[in-house]
Amino acid sequence: MKKYRFIFVILTILCIAFIWNNSLATGTESSAFSEMVKEMINNILSALGIGGFSEHFVRKLAHFTEFFCLSCLLVSDCILYAKHMSYAPLAGLLVAVADETIQRFSADRSSSVIDVWIDFSGVCVGLVIMYIACKAVKKYRSKYPPQTTM
């Protein structure tokens, strides 16, 4: 695992680039993309007999989801390099603040403190899930240590 740990760093950088690239989009481009995603989600939900989502909800869900994924990658990076996950929340918050700052300078876009909180909540949920997963793996490994073959 350790010899491939640089892959997690590359994935983290790509995730941040994806987030910030979305923030660089103009308001018109961002709205069109959100509308397309909303239609896809609503078509699936409609086929299941469930009501649809608004564009506003889809946009907020996207914020949460992007930062949830980023958090999982940050925790992996922290565990592989620092042996603990204490840097992940700060890094996630910094990326969220930078994300909203980028939006202030994009055409027809605005930034929102509420979006920073939504982003950070995605980071926190990712941290909790990764913490639980790490504890479960550690417990499993202590109960069933790897067999060494000679």
What does this structure look like?
With 150 residues, the protein is mainly alpha-helical. The protein has one domain (2-143). Helix content is 78%, strand content 0%. The chain is built from five helices and no strands. The mean pLDDT is 89.
Instruction: Give the percentage of residues in beta strands.
Output: under 5%
Low-confidence stretches: none
Residue share in helix: over 70%
- The gross shape turns out to be globular
The overall pLDDT, averaged over residues, is: 89
* The number of domains: 1
Overall strand count = 0
Q: Whole-number radius of gyration?
A: 18 Å
Structural class of the helices, strands and pairings?
A: mainly alpha
Describe the largest sheet: none
End-to-end C-alpha gap: 21 Å
Order of helices and strands: HHHHH
Total helical elements: 5
